[in-house]
Amino acid sequence: MSKFLAIRLAAMGDVAISVPVLCSFAKNYPQHTLYVLTKPNFAPMFASAPDNLHVIGIYLKQSGSLLGLIRFFRETLKPLHIDYVADLHNVMRSWVLDFCLRLHGARIAKRAKDKKERLELLNHRIHRPLKAYYQRFADVFAKLGFAIRWDFAPWKPECPLPADGAKWIGIAPFSAHEGKVYPLDKLELVVAQLSALDGVRLFLFGGGRREAEILSGWAAKYPHTESLVGRFGLKQEIGVMAQLSVMLSMDSANMHLASLTGTPVLSVWGPSHPHVGFRPWNQSNDRYIQCELPCRPCSEWGSKPCKRGDWACMHNIQPDTIADKIKQYL
C-alpha cells in the first residue's frame, strides 16, 4: 500500500474541479491511501469520498510563509511517510512542500500549466478548446504511473429544506471578479420573469455583506424568491443545489459546486471562456451562455479590464435569452 498526497490549496472553484478526479482515483486504487491538502473550509466538498481519501487542512495565514510551510511539513506531513505527491496547484507554496517531501523520498508530479497554449488562445492565435482542468489534474496522477478511470457519481447531500412540489431554480449572480458578473439590473429582470411563473421557487446564492443586501432586496421584492446568504454551511448549500431543476451561475465556484451534484448548470461567460479549460464537470456545451466576439477570451480568470471599455461580452446577452434557457429545464 502506498500513500499519496494531492495538493490543491485554492481557490474554491479549482478545488471543486478536483473532486471528481480525486474521488475517482480513490475508487480506482482502494489499496492506496490518498491525502488531500487544502483549506479546511473546503473539506465538506469531499464528504462523499471513499474511505481511503482523507482531507488535511492547512491554514495559510498561519502556515503560508516559508518557515510556516517547513514547520507544517515537519509536524503534519513528514509523519505520514508520503510515497507520491500530485501537485495540482504548482505554485511557490506547493513547491516548498514538494522540495521537503522529495528530500524524504517522495516521487513528485506537477500540473502542467500549458502557458504557451493559454497565451496563444488569449491572443487569438488558436481557437480550439484547451484541455479541461479536471483532465489536467488527472494527467498529474498519470505522470506518477496511475491513470484514472472516471468513477464519480453525482453527490446528493441531504437538503436542509423540505420538498414542496415546486420546481426549484438556483441563481448565483456573483463571481470573484466583477468582469465575470452579468449586469445586475439585467439579471434582476430574469429574476422578475422567473418569479412570476407558477409552481417555481427561486434560491439566490452568494456571500458577504454587499451580496447579502442585493439578494435580500430581490427576495423581498419578488414572490417565491429566497436568499440563502448566511443561512447554511457549504455542505447544506450543496444539498440545496442537488435538488434544483436548474442552476444559473457565472463562471464561478458555484458553477463547479452545483456540477458535482449532477444538476444542470447554465453558466454565463464574458471575458473568460470555456475554451481556457475551467469548464464545469459533466456539463454539455449547450449550457454555456455567451456572446461570441472576436476579442474573447480576453482574460483567463476574468480579472483584466475590458479593452473595449463597454463589456459587450456581458451586456450583449439579453435577459430573455437567459430566462428562456432556464425555462427549457422546467
Explain the overall architecture:
The protein has two domains: 3-143, Rossmann fold (3-Layer(aba) Sandwich), CATH 3.40.50; 167-327, Rossmann fold. The protein is 35% helix and 15% strand. The protein has twelve helices and eleven strands. Strands 8-7-6-9-10-11 form a six-stranded parallel sheet, sandwiched between helices. Helix 1 links the parallel strand 1 (3-7) and strand 2 (33-38). Helix 1 (12-28) packs across helix 6, helix 1 (12-28) runs parallel beside helix 10 (253-259) and helix 7 (184-195) runs parallel beside helix 12 (319-327). It is globular. The termini are far apart. The model has no long low-confidence stretch (mean pLDDT 95).
The quaternary organization reads as single chain
Question: What's the tally of helices?
Answer: 12
Widest sheet, order of strands: 8-7-6-9-10-11
Major sheet description: 6 strands, parallel
CATH-derived architecture of the largest domain: 3-Layer(aba) Sandwich
The run of helices and strands is EHEEHHEHEHHEHEHEHEHEEHH
Name the CATH class of the largest domain. Answer: Alpha Beta
Q: Give the helix proportion (percent range).
A: 25-40%
Q: Gap between N and C termini, in Å?
A: 48 Å
**pLDDT average, as an integer?**
95
Low-confidence stretches: none
Q: Rounded to an integer, what's the Rg over CA atoms?
A: 21 Å
Class inferred from helices and paired strands: alpha/beta
